[in-house]
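Subject: Sanity check before I submit

Could someone independently write out the structure tokens for this chain? I want to compare against mine line by line before I put it in a report. The sequence has 74 residues.
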Amino acid sequence: MLEMRPDCERCGADLPADEGGAFICSFECTFCADCADALDERCPNCGGELLDRPARTGAALKKNPASTKRHFTA
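---
Independent answer below. Compare away.
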């Protein structure tokens, strides 16, 4: 199950689990759309492809809440 990280690792932008606009690699490194574009859709951590993260909504989000641990470090 996806961790659904709450923020962009590059700029710190909020990325709610129930909205689109987040991009992840196979290790779940998470970036906003602007940062994914700036990174040419490649994860700077592992070199993997950044793809759209699916949204988690409704009962699924209530039963399996998104992570609250932020990964952005200034």
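---
OP: Matches mine. For the report I'm noting this point. The mean pLDDT is 96.
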